[in-house]
Amino acid sequence: MKRYDNYINGVWTQSETGLYLQNINPATGEVLGEVVVSNANDVDGAVTAAKNAQKSWRLVPAPERAEILYEVARILKEKKEYLAQILTAEMGKVIAEARGEVQEAIDMAYYMAGEGRRLFGDTVPSELRNKFAMSVRVPVGVAGLITPWNFPIAIASWKSLPALVAGNAVVWKPASETPFMAAEFVKVFEEAGLPKGLMNVVFGSGSVVGNALVEHPDVDIISFTGSNEVGKAINGRAGSLLKRTSLEMGGKNAVTVLEDADLDLAVDGIIWSAYGTAGQRCTACSRIIVHEAVKEELEKKLVARISELKVGNGSDEQVDVGPVINRESLGRINDYVEKGVQEGAKLLCGGKVLAGADFAKGHYYEPTLFTDVSPNMTIAKEEIFGPVTSLIPVKSLAEAIEVNNNVEFGLSSSIFTRDVNKVFMAMRDFDTGIVYINAGTTGAEIHLPFGGTKGTGNGHRDSGVAALDVYTEWKSIYVDFSGTLQRAQIDNK
Predict the structure, then answer these.
(1) Which of 18, 82, 263, 340 is the most buried (most CB within 10 A)?
(2) Is domain 253-437 given the CATH code 2.60.120.10 in the classification?
(3) Cα 167 off chain centre by
């Protein structure tokens, strides 16, 4: 049986707890192996290693640091299929999506390696004679990363790669549900020649390992992706310690379909956004805001397409929708569906835990569609994180914008229309960090910022050049070569 321990200062290290958790395939119930349960002492050892390693890493020229990231990209590309198969077995997403996720990590490695030669600062004219003024980026120090199970390598790449190329060291707490993917990612860094101590992994619970990271005085920044509740707690505690945080905390994303939309294209976008990854994406389409003139036709097309979706083990190339991550998630999703029915929403299809011989050992939920949902129903307001979406009828674009924005989150939104004027109004007025035109709510590319407004985050972004702002500080430098004391803002004329 595979067993994974912590990775601290370049060594796979057991915890003094002596405890291990089973890692279970959500599609089959098969025990894949075990992962260590850590404590605060393990975190302290990892942070100490990171702090010591970062002292010399920050002095390595950024283009030289980037060479290791290029090697990470090359190795990931070599191991793409191997990693994708592990990802599907451990997390459950269908194999085509798993390959796409590994590709995202490859792309991120190449992109951030390129930033090793573009960690630009600014030079500006001084207001005084014989004086030079500039700003440069410097690393923050030790970055504590807390990542979820739904994108175990993609999100880890969004955080670790910019942190490392900018000159920081990393202590990473992966999700307990996907430890093997984390361990394999660490092995890639090891093979690429990353110096010891710069990438450390401590497995364990958020309440123990996560809290220890947040509380540790030598962790300079926390980057977290997960629930709103946990993110708020992290932000409150880290703020009291004057510690920087970068938070991405989910969404309640909507596809808006106007009366002039290409309905077949809209259906394609909705199906992929709502039921890809079994709806377990922070960008999943959880609401469909549809103009009443095309509501019935859209309903019929969606029900027909949903009936064709094949649910099953994601390792089967023919499967469209895999399992949800565990039995607790299955119960939570079903509770939301029952709540929707109780509050008066009309269930068009799905709405049940899948049973029978093909599903008995896994965690499967039927792709589910509600209609006649009001904007204030629970299923229209709260993040479900499962294969469930709801049709909300509206009479105009203005009403659609209001409904789109009337939720706690602000991550992703989309609109299907042929009217360029309405497109630009939606681009301006949708209160989300990401907006798609004639596409679903998923599909972010790594060279643009990823994150959102309101309850989705705290203003920082993963991916793109914006990620470098998370892991660097600005330093302003003045060089006076006048040979005299010159005082800025003092009238010397």
Answers:
(1) 340
(2) no
(3) 22
Instruction: Tell me the catalytic residues.
Output: 248, 282
In the chain, CATH 3.40.309.10 covers 253-437
Tell me the residue type at 170.
V
Cβ atoms of residues 23 and 32 within 8 Å: yes
* DSSP 8-state class, residue 425: H
The string of DSSP codes covering 242-263 is T-EEEEE----EEEEE-TTS-H
Q: Which of 153, 224, 208 is nearest to 15 (CA)?
A: 208
| Per-residue model confidence as pLDDT tens for the chain (493 residues) | 789 999 999 999 999 999 999 999 999 999 999 999 999 999 999 999 999 999 999 999 999 999 999 999 999 999 999 999 999 999 999 999 999 999 999 999 999 999 999 999 999 999 999 999 999 999 999 999 999 999 999 999 999 999 999 999 999 999 999 999 999 999 999 999 999 999 999 999 999 999 999 999 999 999 999 999 999 999 999 999 999 999 999 899 999 999 999 999 999 999 999 999 999 999 999 999 999 999 999 999 999 999 999 999 999 999 999 999 999 999 999 999 999 999 999 999 999 999 988 898 999 999 999 999 999 999 999 999 999 999 999 999 999 999 999 999 999 999 999 999 999 999 999 999 999 999 999 999 999 999 999 999 999 999 999 999 999 999 999 999 999 999 888 766 5
The total of other beta-carbon atoms located within 10 Å of residue 367's CB is: 24
User: Which of these, 248, 64, 17, 272, lies nearest to 155 by C-alpha position?
Assistant: 248
Cα dihedral sign, 438-439-444-450: positive
**Domain 2-249+457-477, CATH number (from 3.40.50.720, 3.30.420.40, 2.130.10.10, 3.40.605.10):** 3.40.605.10
Delimiting residues of CATH 3.40.605.10 domain(s) in the chain: 2-249+457-477
